[in-house]
Design goal:
With 328 residues, the chain is α/β, with parallel strands linked by helices. The longest helix has 26 residues. The relative contact order is 0.11.
């Protein structure tokens, strides 16, 4: 009946249909004779394989940790300058202000590090007491820069100011002294600039000339109305680490913006540079720490790669190198 219907449609009859199921061709077994993948080592055991896997994972974690550790951006704290309220003033001038001078921040940031201004902390505030202390900053930051600013108060090194205008900033002294000691105790590097250099000396029992022109009449003028354009030469004493940083510098020129200076050295403090030819201390270093150094001049006002003033980027690099080596 079906063949007749095909003939009527003019179609050629096909072969008879069979009800059969084709068996798919089996993919050849490419494993070794013992059933293990051929890429495994002959005679390998699960324990040996597990050991190699764990070893590989450990190498990957170690390499990743080393890479991240070396590439992690350094975090450098800078002490705050303090503006005290002016009597009778209104607005901002009637408030306590803490601020950061732009040049010092830009100088440190030139090496691609993060800069944080460290504020004073108030653990006895009536309205907003804090459990945060300066020790927390020393713990979490990699290094400290003490920036320049107001005079160190003679009271801080057990003297009385010989003139009212030389009374300095006692409140800032107390804040920065605590900050300095916390970073030193934490094993973190410290770089003091101008006032910061003087504070490092005082922190370890040293004293200052309240006014270089008054106390050392034969000295050069170390402060001038030209401000950072005023300059003089310095010398590095034998054995100075600064001398090793600048082996080819013969009496380099630095700026001079200070009327106070180091007088009696603090304990374990050594001289790193002196002004020429009057011998006023221009740089110091604390021997009981890996890196605690003070520069009397302002390196942030020296142009990188410049030839007229000493290029101080080697000092910055040494400071940051110490920060990387001592960070947690």
């Amino acid at each position: 009946m079906a063949d007749e219907q095909v003939k009527q449609r003019g179609e050629a009859p096909g072969p008879p249909q069979e009800n059969r199921t084709e068996t798919p061709q089996r993919i050849p077994d490419r494993r070794a004779g013992n059933g293990a993948p051929r890429y495994q080592r002959p005679g390998d055991t699960p324990f040996a394989l597990a050991g190699r896997v764990l070893s590989s994972r450990w190498r990957a974690l170690r390499d990743r940790f080393s890479r991240d550790f070396m590439r992690r951006t350094l975090r450098i704290g800078v002490s705050a300058r303090i503006f005290h309220p002016e009597p009778g003033a209104t607005g901002l001038r009637s408030k306590n202000l803490q601020y950061l001078e732009e040049s010092i921040a830009q100088w440190v940031m030139s090496r691609d590090v993060l800069v944080f201004m460290i504020p004073t902390v108030n653990t006895n505030g009536l309205l907003h007491p804090s459990n945060i202390t300066l020790r927390h900053y020393a713990r979490h930051l990699d290094g400290l820069v003490l920036q320049g600013g107001a005079d160190v108060s003679p009271q801080t090194y057990s003297e009385s100011p010989t003139r009212p205008e030389w009374s300095g900033d006692r409140a800032r002294d107390l804040y920065e002294l605590e900050l300095l000691h916390e970073f030193v105790e934490a094993g973190k590097p410290v770089l003091g600039v101008c006032r910061g250099c003087q504070l490092i000396n005082v922190a370890f029992g040293g004293t200052l000339y309240q006014d270089v022109a008054t106390n050392v009449p034969a000295a050069l003028a170390h402060v001038h109305t030209d401000y950072d354009a005023h300059r003089h030469a310095i010398e590095f004493p034998p054995g100075s680490s600064l001398g090793r940083m600048f082996p080819n510098a013969q009496r380099p020129i630095v700026n001079s913006i200070h009327h106070q200076a180091v007088k009696e050295l603090g304990r374990d403090i050594r001289i790193e540079a002196m002004s020429y030819p009057d011998g006023i201390v221009e740089a110091i270093r604390y021997d009981k720490a890996d890196f605690v150094m003070g520069l009397q001049w302002h390196p942030e006002f020296h142009r990188a790669g410049g030839t007229d003033l000493l290029d101080c980027t080697p000092v910055l690099d040494e400071f940051l190198r110490a920060a990387r080596e001592t960070r947690l």
